[in-house]
Amino acid sequence: MKTLGFEIGRKFTFTKTFAESDVYLFAGIIGDFFPAHVNEEYCKTMPYGTRLVHGCLTFSLCSTVSGMAGVESGSHILAMGYDQLRFRKPVYFGDTITATYWITEVDEAKGKTTGQCVMTNQKGETVLTCLHYMKVIQPAEEGKA
């Protein structure tokens, strides 16, 4: 059953392998050149031994899969925020991450949804979890901004 165009429990997935170029482009866009992401020699002295993908870059896949849910709903939506974001395991260059998203609750009276996002690596290990909130909005009437 659909509520506000959303089917509770319907899953959306997106899979991406993070390459070195993804990390360097992201670092340049946001200005985060912390050595854990861009300096292999520095990382050899750290517990993980190699460079890590930015947590925020990994997290950005939640926007991809939640957007897929919004498009399928046929509703006009806006992201309202995220909660309980947890980086469970590191993501390394070359890891293939699958983001899975599903709606867990729809509040018709408030026009709001709650969704869960879980990301796993190629080994099936959970690397990130969070809750996501969306607001269903009414389109502006024609001629009004």
Give structural notes:
It is a single chain. By secondary structure, the chain is an alpha+beta fold. It has a domain of 99 residues: Hotdog Thioesterase (Thiol Ester Dehydrase, Chain A, Roll), CATH 3.10.129. It has a five-stranded antiparallel β-sheet. Strand 1 and strand 2 form a beta hairpin. The longest helix has 13 residues. It starts with a strand and ends in an 8-residue tail after the last strand.
What structural class should be given to the helix and strand makeup? Answer: alpha+beta
- State the name of the first-level CATH class of the domain at 2-17 and 55-137: Alpha Beta
- Following the backbone from N to C, one meets helices and strands in this order, namely EEEHHHHHEEEE
Termini Cα gap = 33 Å
Helix residue percentage: 25-40%
Classify the beta-strand content into a percent band.
Answer: 35-45%
Per DSSP E runs of 2 or more residues, the count of β-strands stands at 7
For the largest beta-sheet, the strand count, sense and barrel status come to:
5 strands, antiparallel
Architecture (CATH level 2) name of the domain at 2-17 and 55-137: Roll
Overall shape: it is: elongated
Our Rg estimate from Cα atoms comes to 18 Å
SSE order and pairing:
Blueprint lengths: L1 E2 L2 E2 L3 E7 L2 H11 L4 H4 L1 H4 L11 H5 L1 H13 L2 E12 L8 E12 L4 E9 L5 E12 L8
Antiparallel strand pairs: 1-2, 3-5, 4-7, 5-6, 6-7
In a few lines, what is going on in this structure?
The chain has five helices and seven strands. With 145 residues, the chain is an alpha+beta fold.
